[in-house]
Amino acid sequence: MDCNENNQFGCLPIEILIEIFKYLTFDDIQSASLACRQWMLASEYEEFHKKLVLRFSKIILSDLLTPAKTFMNSTRSFPNVIFEEIAVENCKKFLKNIGENGVRSITFHSQQLTSKEFCYILENLIELRELKITETSKILKDENFLIDSNDINKIRPIINNLKSIKISVPTPEIYSIQRLCSLINGGLEEFEINFEFSYHLNDTKIVGNVLRQIIYENAATLKKLSLKHIVDTNDFISSITVFNNFYLTSLRCIDVSPWRSLIIFISTQNTLKELDLSYSDQVTDAHIKLLVKFIINLEKLILAKCINLSDRSLYAIDETLKKLRVLDISKCDRMTCYAVNETIVAKRNLKMKELFLSGMEINTSCIVKLCRNLPNLKVLDLSHCMGINNGTVQRIIMELDELNYLNLEGCKLISDFALTGLNIETNKEEGFSIGRLKHLQYLNIKGCKLITDISFIKNIKLVELKTLCLPNIAICASDIKLLSTNCPSIVNLDLSECQTMENVDKVMDAFNYFKRLRNFQFYKFQIDFMCAVK
Q1: Number of domains composing the chain
Q2: Which of 4, 136, 362, 515 could bridge across to 385 with cysteines, CB 3.0–4.6 Å?
């Protein structure tokens, strides 16, 4: 594309092109970069590559073999790397190359590496800022993990520069975690420790002492803390309340006990912006009523599946937390629609952006108030709400113009009319099509058994839709092709409940019409297009 009188787009300043590209997906930016040198330079803006992921799964990592050999001489930056069930051979050049190109986050998932192999990988990642270890069975279980002084000296500067450590493992390998975190000389900003299963009570004192030491050494900089399945018989949680300059902005506690300690700690954290207490069956209305008095600046509150909370908690939240932007009370079975009507949706609220009400008994009156008083909602989860019907969905479409996420999974009363506004018997439009939600990027209608393929696939046009989950409908290759035209931006497509009477291979071929599709599930098939780049 040349800069001439007939075409000035190639002459646009880099700054303007960058602002335009911010509205595009990464794939679209890559396509645009092929137009001319100016557009190519704009596409290299660092912000566009922050979420780019390089993923290696079930392969041998070697300088002599693909895919490592392919990427060895690449100059492109991949800030995020995932290693999943890989074997490591001689890959020094590859690791050095991706390290110099700015890897800032690395994830070891279900990995069987030894301590030496772990250090061998990390020592080259000079720009690393985030380390994730998930579902790992061997790295942390290695008895020699970070015992060798030579290995420690090689990775000490790398670990010391980390800003975030996230560890999610079945059981606590607490001494390995301690040795890893001891290499950080303060400066950690985010620490996440998730044990998938509760551990033996004999280990609680050791776990508490180690976690206390990690938090103490990073108290001045730590802003985000996440704990899961922590049994605190040694009362380490209440003891960290006395640490100087220890003020969090985000706290996540799932199945942490005893609650008395947690209450004491949270009451000192008046800087909290985000609090996640989901799946905490020990939290009660009395706890919530007390807590909200100390965290009046809270913007995000997650209480999903806190089964002992009732309407009293809703009244306390509504009365005290005036800055909430995100609220999740999904599957809080003792909370009623009456309380929701009287609190969350009762008054005009322009701050609320995300609301999760999954599994609640929501009625028409509640939806009417919600649409009228929460006009800036961008995320709405009404999955498995038995009171949601065609009329309530039509109200949402008519009034919530800013929605980009809508979950209606399991709402069994809604039919084609809810989403299309089309009377199938007369073939006339008597309502609004969901296509009116121009910014919708996520739509889930799985389990909505009254929806058919006839009106949905032929009448829904959502240009920005990226994720679509459909119910049990019969589809054919022509339906898939039409859907790709009406919803061209789809990246994730879940048709796992759908069936077809056509040849399966013919239907599978039709998915090629989706130019941006990365993964999809169909019938008995689950396909992942991501390969190396996610």
Answers
A1: 1
A2: 362
